[in-house]
Structures are given as structure tokens and as C-alpha cells.
Amino acid sequence: MESNYDIRTLIFRTFMVVAYVCFGSGIFYLLERDEPLREAAKFEEYYNKTMSSILGRSITNSTEMQIIMAEIRRTFLQESYPIEWDFLGGVNITVHAITTIGYGNTVPKTVAGRMFLIIYATIGIPLMAMMLTTLGDKVKHAIRSSLISFERNILKRSRPQNIQRKSLIAVFVITAIFLCSVSAISAKVENWEFSLALYVWFVTFTTIGFGDYVPQGSGKIDPLYTPLELAYALIAFFLGLVLIATILHTLSDWINSKRPPTTDDLKRSLGRMTGSLSTHKEEPSTNIAET
């Protein structure tokens, strides 16, 4: 019964997070879709003024040419041409918000979008945390059960020892393999060095999210994703966060197994023993009454 309850809880929390992401993506799309047009108009005005200023000068020496090139560079770097928002852009920003990754490559530009983000993240972050907690606990128990089965069935040990420590080592190894695998794929797809890809995904999985590099599946600067790129990023984000949650669960269990029992632990153990003795004492009288 408890197992069925846990599964229903996991399914419900996962459904809530997916539905919440879709809801937020649609709202962000409605709030932000017109802002790129306004930014484009500002960009064109700024660009035309800069070019008019440049073309109106007479270039006399290399120093002046360097000044002109610096102005052009500043124009394109500081006033980058805005891109169009779509629903996938909304998914991008909602996932980055509720997972607290916060790269900063896609952000709300309107006042309404920023105010909505405050409310949205306040609800979404706890929802995501609950789902990751449930999944991390499930993965922890799966790893623990697999280790016990391996020792009993393969190594023929009737009483497996140090399961908490072995579970912790196993989840660290699994996470390291996954991190290296995703980094190797990104190094190939994004044209990055492996060390850079490893750094980017570590920053992502730990939700540090500096934003200096963003995995997107194409090595481009464009902060919006194609459907394939979005699927690639979301699957990697999700699995990485689940593994981090599993590490925290397993580490907590291992630390608790090492600490000496507290007074509360002894009271609970004594209570269970007392309850067990009471049950055994009542059984004969119950049988006699029934007879």
C-alpha cells in the first residue's frame, strides 16, 4: 500500500511540474512576444545614429579608424539585435527559473513578465524541489536494493555489510559517468573542449548557473532553442538534478548511520520493543477467548 502511495505521489508531483511549466511558458510567451519588436526599433535607431556618425567623419589616420571600429564593436555587443520569442523560449525561461539554474541568457524584459516571474518562481521552486526529492529518494532505494541483491545473489553474502557507504560510492560513480558522458556529447556538438563542457554541466547540475557558457545543442549564441535542442537540454538538466538529489539523500543516510543514537532514537526503539512485547502478551488471551 505504501509503495502504491509513493508511486501515486511521484506521478502527481511530476504531472504538476510539467503542467506548471506549460502554463508558465504560455504566459511568458503572451507577455514577452511583442517586446522584441520594440527592442528591434530601438536597435535600428541606435544603429542608424552610430553609422551616420561614423560615415560623417573623414578618416585621416589609423587611430581614428580604431575609434570607429570600437564604436561598431560596441554597437553590436552592447545592443545585440533582439530575437523573436516563441513557446519554446517560454519553456526555457520557466525551467531555468524553477530549477534555480538561472543562466540569464533568456530573461523577461517587460514589467509584467518580471512581476509574473516573481509569483511563478515562488510557487514553482517548491514544486520542483518536491518532485526532485521524491525522485531522488526512489533512485536511492533502487541503488540500495540493487546492491543488496548483487551481494546476496552474486557474491553469496547472507548479510551485506556497509550498504550505506557502498550506495554513496555507487551514486557518486553513476553521477560522474553521466556528467562525463553529457560533457563528451556537448564537446562534440558545441565544438567545446572537454574540460569546458565538463565545467558547464557541473555548473548546471549544481544550479550554480554562472551563464558564461550555456549548453544549447548547436554552439550558437541564440538563447532560444529548436525543439530537438530543447529536448536535449531538458533531459540532461532533469537527469542531472535527479542525480544530485540522490547524492544528497544518500549522503544524509550515510551521515545518520555514523552518528551515535540519540535519546529520541532510543525512546523510539524502546517504544517499538514495548509494543511488540504487548502484542505477544495479548495473543494467548485472544486465542483463549476465541476458543
UniProtKB/TrEMBL annotation:
The keyword Transmembrane helix applies. The keyword Ion transport applies. GO terms for cellular component: plasma membrane. InterPro entries: 2pore_dom_K_chnl, K_chnl_dom. It is found in: Membrane. It is a multi-pass membrane protein. GO terms for molecular function: outward rectifier potassium channel activity; potassium ion leak channel activity. GO terms for biological process: stabilization of membrane potential. Gene3D superfamilies: 1.10.287.70. Keywords: Ion channel, Ion transport, Membrane, Transmembrane, Transmembrane helix, Transport. Residues 76-139, 171-253 form the Potassium channel domain. Belongs to the two pore domain potassium channel (TC 1.A.1.8) family. This is Potassium channel subfamily K member 15-like.
